[in-house]
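Exercise 3.2. Students should predict the tertiary structure of the chain below and write it as structure tokens, then compare their answer with the key that follows.

Predict this chain's 3D structure.
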Amino acid sequence: HVKNQKLILEAINILKETEKIKVIFAGVVEDEKYYEVLMEYCAKNKIEQFVDFVGFTNNILEYYAKCDLLVLASLEEGTPNVLLEAFMGRLKVIASDIPMNAECMHNKKMLFSPNDAAELAQKIIMMKNLNKAEQEEFLVKNYNYVCENYSIKCMGERYIQMLYLQ
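Answer key:
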């Protein structure tokens, strides 16, 4: 439940009549019962054609290249590596408003409540409607954030600082 995929399905259900949308869920199914809940929700709301569960992949970059938008709806994260990877790939991103995601997102308009499918649906439409200049600003700032905060040099310096503070 931590990845909060059901919220994304609820947003798809809201958008299915007005937006051309396809969602790809990549990753190992960790909770078979939750996966069944997701599949039942898809069937009940007739959204199967909008959803693809691809399971584990060792080439996530292939999927990133196909995407117009990455949605990270997690209820909890450590370091949100998915966001950082998307930033490096200059992919548009929206994320749940939880501490670790919020720390990485310079534009707080790109955050949504992890409990509000209608807000997520609005954010998806907002991202779709960004003009080219807004998109480029967003993508460049995200890319720069990763370069400035997660480069090998930066991470090494932080690690050395940690060791000497101990």
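Discussion points: The radius of gyration is 17 Å. The CA atoms of residues 128 and 150 lie 28 Å apart.
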